[in-house]
Structure formats: structure tokens, C-alpha cells
Amino acid sequence: MKKSFLIQFSLLLLLIILANLGLRPAENLINDELGNAGGIRVDLTGEETIFESSPTGKEPQQGGTLVLAESAHPEHLNTFTSTSAAATRILDNIYETLLGYDFRTWRYDKPVLAESFSVSEDGYTLTFKIRKNVYWHDGEQLTAHDVLFSLKSILNPFVDSAPTRSSFQKVTSARTEGDFIFSVTSSETHFRNQEILGGFHIIPKHVWDPEGLLDRYSVEDLLNPSVTREEAAIKGFADAFNVHPQGRPVGDDAEPIIGSGPWVFDKWITGDYISYAKNNNYWNADETYEEGFSEDGAYLDKVIVKVISDATARLTALKAGELDFIPRMRAVQYFTQTNTPDFLEKFQKVNYVVPAYSYVGWNNDRPYFKDKRVRQAMTMLIDRDNYNENVAYGLGIPTIGPFYIYGKQYNHNIERWPYDPQRAVELIEEAGWIDHDGDGIRDKDGIPFNFTFSVSSGSTSSKYLALMLKEDLRKVGIVVNIRQLEWSVYVENLRDRQFDVVSLLWIGGLEMDPYQIWHSDNIGDRGSNYMGFRHAEADSLIEKARYELDEGKRNAMYFRLQEIFHEEQPYTFMFYQRDPGAYLKEFHGVKWLPIRPGYRLNSWWRNTASVGATS
Amino acid sequence: MSEMAPARTYSQIVGSQFRKNKLAVMSLHIIYVLLFVFIFADFLANDKPIVMRYQGSTYFPVFREYGVKWFGLNWQDAFKSQQFKILEKKYGEGDWAIYPVIPYSSTEYNLQVKLQPPSRAHIFGTDELGRDVLSQMIHGARVSLLVGFVAVAIYVFIGVILGALAGFYGGIIDIVIQRLIEIMITFPRMFLIITIVAVMETQSIINIMIILGLTGWTGVARFTRGEFLKVKNEDYVVAAKALGYRDFRTIFRHVLPNTLTPVLVTATFGVAAAILIESGLSFLGFGAPPEQATWGSLLSSARDTLPTGWWLTTFPGLAIFITVTVYNLVGEGLRDALDPRLKQ
Q1: Which of A151, A406, A490, A552 is found 20 to 30 A from B108 (Cα to Cα)?
Q2: How far apart are the C-alpha atoms of A334 and A326, rounded to whole Å?
Q3: Per mean pLDDT, which range of A102-111, A390-399, B22-31, B125-134 is the poorest?
């Protein structure tokens, strides 16, 4: 017995030593010389708006499977009630919109489901002519009634779609003429009108509302509170809509999501994967290919989105050949764990800008963060450059506000708050947070400066940020507690505004309407102004700018708005993101775009001739 | 008997038996070292000086920290920010400070030296935030040992009482307690713990200790019950009953002391098991809060940086392995020493 222990012990020691001998030394521990670790950096600044990292080639091959990995499942797949980016990434393939981006001009005027559209003389009415050759995945024809139904679902006040609905506030009426004309009227013209009114997903009426519950009500009825209060059917529809099985098609036997897009929903196996397959009857498949304009048909047979929550496991799976593509890996992996010649020979590494920024959000209604001086001080206490350089390996692009850093709305005249703990402490003391009772913790009106930093348990980078902040603030007499929460709980707390501090990412677009996140209308009631930012001038600027069609005037207002954000610091704006990813070199037609999620699988094709197919 | 051996007490006999087992004795010494680390962690690894002379007065910042934490004392004005290393720049004539052997706290980060392999400045290297690994291990030892001892203490307490009641009374009480044990052991323990931890509002090692304690008592209860069944018909128990002692006194004064030794042996193994479970939980991110250094969380952060940071897996892994092994060896030594059948 005793001998066996000794033997086990020495065996284990030997194993550990052997395991470590087999490891390669640190490949490229970058500190001063960042480099790009054998990858391509895609910045998409200036004129260049699409970057192709693996050429399309002349004759793309059909067929093949792509397996990619994401870190989490979407909560559900109900397109109007979901706010999660993971759901959008799936649903954008299955559902379609009336209009889309023209990738050459980046204007939102490419006809998709609409064959053409026209704007009335006063600018308030948009009329779409719907294509007559579009069929749902179940064979039914797509008509203007589906379009109207989709809009009604969004506008139904009982449908859990407040964030989506906030863009549709000025819609006054919508109607169909015959089966293929759809028109919608607003009382004011939003500067992103086409993107909003032509950019929502069209869902099939015959699947979501087979009994035609909403048929009896017009858009005007749905917008009229006295009607919606009276009519029980409106609420009844919404209750069913919020939990409709189409929004959660989990399991082998679930009815698939019915859409009209180039991909057909295949399966959602919880904890494992979501897959979608090529739509062989896609209406747009044989349309003449035009670079940057019509790239809608798909080449691949199937896309499997695996869910692997752990970053290390994702990279291991990629190296083991179980995955073909990781859209996002950790910076430390990109820069230090994927530099071997083997890896670089097999995989292409890319880091690409996405219109998403990270921030630390201070709940403005908490006593600690009510005063803007404290929020400014908090910003000055976070050593952002040090963090970016060492934790994010320089992948972040420092930002002063929420607008897309390479877009026209971004105000480049504002100088970022410096890292300046001394000035920060002065501001905190000015705001009245002084250690009155001498216990080493600052307090004001009897409340100790002791707050909780909520961290999503999957996010290593926000955990590190929280740990750094905790250590730094301890030194100035502020206590930070760190709380790790499961993502779904985290989001739930966020919506109910039950948090002091969060660290998160907002995904935006090339142009953004700040109303949803920054207007005081959207505080509470599960609106997206989670931080509770209230500012009269900001509110009026946001309201005016949305309906200002003159770009110069509008952006002047947004410039002013960013000055307010800068002064008020409702968030500490951290970085615009570069996502580091890697894909198998067998893939061609790999393009990177400045819209989310940064890549479009439609143009990808797999060269199976060069290497045997892996999956 | 031709020779008269000097009278030896029970503990002397056990002690001499135990000492014959070299491996167990060695393990016991390692446990002493661990206990030393456990008690003096703050004096071994800290970013505050143990003693310092500053502007004509002598201070003891590490002791002061205990005072601030537990006795409501305050930091001296000069040390409010607790940045003693920055204070060094202000040192005048005759100012000095003596730091612990490892002059880093477990939370102090320095991104400039992140992921450094072992060197003279950082004997076990640094992690992704440039925190000293050895310092984290020393403070992590506290968590591991504390969890081990407290969890086992809780479940030994519960287990002994329930086992004693079941064994002594038998009948309906026995049946109820036995079924309770069976219900408890049908749950896979690790999953049960993870489920409870996931529901908990806050993360803390106190929760972990309580949960481990509340879920681990079944083995001890069965053991005690068995021993009670063995002993309860012995003459001295019958005598106690005949003398009209109350059950409480019979159970706890007369029977229990004679059944406790095997329980202590299982408890020793239990400490090792609890340490392992705590490491596992921390590794999965369910254990101690993120700012609390534990061996398991060190291992888990190391996984993110492999293959680069071998020192992040090796040292905490060895620490867990050695600790668990020495507890098992001591447990085994104790068992052998206590077992009368093995006595020559």
C-alpha cells in the first residue's frame, strides 16, 4: 500500500515533467513588438469597405459543410422579442428583409424582398412592390400580407419587443393593396427610415397567426391604446406570440423555423449546436452575380453553429479539426497560441473591426454614480491603455462615444479622459465622498462607497477588468465586490436594472440612432437605457436629430451629443472591437464587412479538391 | 509473562504504532508545514511590510491589517492608501521596512510582468495579470485547508449525531435516518453541489464549506451507526442503562468515545476529499469569488494560457496533489495504528 503510493507519486511527477517538456516555449510573448502574429488585420477604414482575405476565384464550388463555434446559445429565436446578437446572427440567414445594404455604396436601398420601392412626395410614405417569385420554406408564397403581419406583430404593444418597437414610434399607418403592394406611413421621416421600415425580418403569417387573429385590426388600431386595452384578442395574440414554438424550435422533432432566406433552418440541439442548410429552392439563387451587390445565394450545403462556451475548448476543437472557423477567440490565443508554422499553414488568422464597442456601465441611479464627477473619476481611474495593451493585446480601438469609429457620426474633436488617479480622487472628494468615519472606506450621507461589479461568468476579459478595478479602487478607499453571473441571469438583471456596474458590449451599425439606448423614454419597463441616463439637452438632441434629414445638420447634433456623453460619462467608453478569428484555408470567398457580424457566409465556398473534406 | 513492560497509555501505544510508518510521519510533517502556511500566510506573502520605520516611528502594517479587519482599528493617515511600495520613494533618513519573504499580495497585479516564467523576482512565475503565483498559492492554501477542515467538522458533527441516534435506538428512528441517508446518496454529490451553488446569490467559500458539510455526512453517519450497533450490547453500556443514566449521557459519555476513532480516520480522508472538491468547484468557476486566490482557480486560469504558462498548471497542481496525498497517508497511518488487529 505504502509502496504503491510512492510509485503513484513519482509517476505523476514524471508525467508532469514529461507534459511540460512536450510543450513549446512561449511562442511570441509580445509586449513591445505587437505585430500581427501571422494574421491579417482588416481595418476597413476610408474607401475600403469590403476586404477579401481568401480570393473568391473564378469558379466557386458548390457543397461542403462549415462548422463554426460560438460561445453561447441565443436565449430564443423569436426575431422580434430577441435582443441578443447570437439570435440575429442565426436569423439573418433564415429571414429576409424588404431592402438591404448595397455593399458598394453602403446605402440601404438594395431591393431584396421588395422588387422596387418609392417614397411619396412629402417623404412620409414608403411604398414597396413585393416580388412575386418568393416562396416560404414550406412552399407557400410570400405576399404583402406577410409583410403587414410582421409589422403588426412588432407594433402590438403586448408583444415583448420594446427595443425593436422604439424605432417604429412615428409609424401611423400601413396597408396592403392587392397581394403585392405594401405601404407604410409615418408622421415624421427618420433619417434611417429605409433601414427601419425596410429592414425588419418578414415572418410568415400562415405559421405565426393561422387563425388570423390580427387580421381584424389595422395598424391604427394597434397604435391606439383605447383599442388595444379593449380588445382581448390583441393581448391574446401577443401572449401566444411571445412564446410561439417557432421562437424556440429545440430538439429533433421541433417544427423548423419557416423563413424565406437562402438558408433553411435545420436543427437546434440545446447545449450542442444550431444548424442551417442551403435553401435549394431559393428564389434569388440564379440571379446574375454582381460583385458587392448580389451575393445572396449560398455555396455551402450546411452550416453548423456549435456552442462551446469555453474559449480554450474552442481553440482545441479548431486545432483538432472539429471546427472550420472560430469568429472570435481570445486575444491571448490569437497572439500567443496560434503562431506555430503548422497552425499558420492550415489556418488563416484575421482580426477584423466590427461595429461594436465595449463599455463599463455605471448605474446612474445608484447613489455612488449619481454625480457626474464620480463617473468622470471612475473613467480616469481605469487604466484603459494599459488594459488594452496587455490584456487585449492592442486589439481595442479607444473610443470616446458610442458611434462607429470609422463612420461619419463620430466626433473626432473630443479628447479622451486621461488615466489620472490623482485628479479622479480630487473629483470624488469634491462630490462629497470622503472617509468621514475613518474606517478606510469613503462614505457620503452614511452610505459607504461599496458597490458590486457584475461580470458575466464566461467573460475572462471583464473578469480581469473587474479584478484590476477592485485592486485599484481599494487603494483610494472604495470597495468593489465582484459578482459572477450566468449570462441569462446577467441579462435578466440588466433589463430589470438590478446592478451597480456592468461591463458589456453594444453592437451597432455604420450609422446609429441613439434613441433606443440613450433617451430617457427608454429607462425602465425593460427599455435599453439600462444605465438610467437622463439629460434634457441630450433628449431633445436625440429627438430632433432622428428626423433631421440633412446629414450635416444631423451630425452636428450628434457631435454635440457626444460632447454631452463625454461630460456626463454615463458609461466609460472603452474600445471599438477588433475580433480575432481563424478559419481553415480550404475556404474561399471569405469577405469581411463593416456590418455585423463582420462576415457573411453566403459568399464562402469550400475547396474540397485540395484536401479531403473533414466533416 | 516473564517480563513486565512499563504501563503504557492508549495514546502512547497508538503513537508508537504510528511512528513506525515512516511515510505517514513524513506526511504529518508536511501537514505541519501546511498549517504553518495556513496561519502565517499574511506574513509570508504580502505587499505590506511586517515592520517599518517611517518618519521616526515604528509601524507593523501586517498586524495593523488584522486590527483594521477585525477590531475596527483604522489605518494611520500616512498609510490610508496602503501603497507601501510607493511610499518607499518618500523615505527619509533612517526609514526602512522589512517585507515578507514574498513581497506581493495575492491580488496585486502588474500587467508589465504578466505571464513571466519563474524567475528570481517571481519564484513560481506570474499569471495573465502579472500577479505572483506563489503568493496566490500561499493564500490559496488558506482556502483549501479551511474548506477541508470546516466542511469535515460540519459533516462529522451531523453524521455522528444522526448515526448515534440511529444505532442506539434502532427501530423507527433507525429506519427514518437510514432512508434519509439513502436519499442523500442517490444524488450525485458534485452535481448537487453545483446546482446549489448556481442558485446561491453570492459566491463565497463559506457557502462552499456549508454545502460540503451538509452533503457529506452520510458516510460518517453509517460508520457511527455500525459502531454503535457493535458496542451497544457491551457490558458497560448495559451497566450504564441499568444504573438508570439518561440516554443522552449513555450515548455521549459512554458509547460515543468508544466509537469515535474510526470516524476520525474517515475524517482525515474526508479533508482530502473536500480539498479536491473545492479545487474542482473553483476550477469550474463555481467556487470562491474571483478575487479570492485558490488552487483550483489558479489551475483554471492556467488552462486559458496553455501551452504558454506551464508554471501556472504545475505548481498549483502539485500543491493539490501533495496535500491530498499527505492527508490520505496520514489517514492510512492512523487507521493502521488504531487497528488492534495489526498490533504485534
Answers
A1: A490
A2: 11
A3: A102-111
Q: Are the C-beta atoms of residues A400 and A566 closer than 8 Å to each other?
A: yes
Task: Using alpha carbons, select from A434, A447, A476, A455 the residue that is nearest to residue A361.
Answer: A455
A36 vs A409, which has greater pLDDT? A409
What mean pLDDT value characterizes chain A? 87
The answer to whether the CB atoms of B128 and A467 lie below 8 A apart is no
pTM of the model: 0.84
Who's near A127: CB < 8 A, 6+ residues apart? Answer: A117, A118, A119, A120, A181, A182, A183
Residue A96: name the closest of A301, A284, A289 by CA.
A284
DSSP B112: G
For residue A130, the tally of other CB atoms under 10 A from its CB is 25
Residues A244, A268 contacting (CB under 8 angstroms): no
CB A241 within 8 A of CB A233: no
Would an 8 Å CB–CB cutoff place B291 in contact with chain A? yes
What sign does the dihedral A489-A492-A497-A502 (CA atoms) show?
A: positive
* A578: enclosing H helix or E strand: strand A571-584
Pairing state between β A450-456 and A501-507: parallel
Secondary structure, 3-state, A10-42 = HHHHHHHHHHHHHCCCCCCCCCCCCCCCCCEEE
Q: What share of chain A is helix, strand, coil (3-state, %, to 5)?
A: 35, 20, 45
What are the φ/ψ torsions at residue A448 (nearest 5 degrees)? -75, 145
Window 132-171 of B: residues touching A by CB (8 A cutoff) are none
Contact assignment for A23 to B21 by CB distance below 8 Å: no
Residue from the list A332, A476, A482 with its beta carbon closest to the beta carbon of B304: A332
pLDDT digits (tens, 9 = 90+) for A392-430: 889 999 999 999 988 889 999 999 999 999 999 999 999
What is the spatial distance between Cα B112 and Cα A34, in angstroms, rounded to a whole number? 14
Nearest partner of A252 among A236, A270, A240, judged by Cα? A270
Q: How close A499 gets to chain B, by Cα (Å)?
A: 13
Is A314 in contact with A458 (CB distance < 8 Å)? no
Work out how many CB contacts closer than 8 A connect A with B. Answer: 100
What residues of B are in contact with residue A23 (Cβ under 8 Å)? Answer: 306-307, 310
Residues of A in contact with B307 (CB under 8 A): 23-24, 337
Closest partner residue to B285 among A332, A483, A484, by Cβ?
A: A484
Dihedral sign computed on CA atoms, order A131, A135, A140, A145: negative
Query: Is the Cβ of B78 closer than 8 Å to some Cβ of chain A?
Result: no
B88 in A contact zone (CB under 8 Å): no
Longest alpha-carbon distance in chain A = 93
Is residue B101 helix, strand or coil?
Answer: coil
Measured between CA atoms, the residue of chain B closest to residue A17 is: B314
Cell for A203?
415572418
pLDDT-wise least confident of A30-34, A213-217, A241-245, B306-310: A30-34
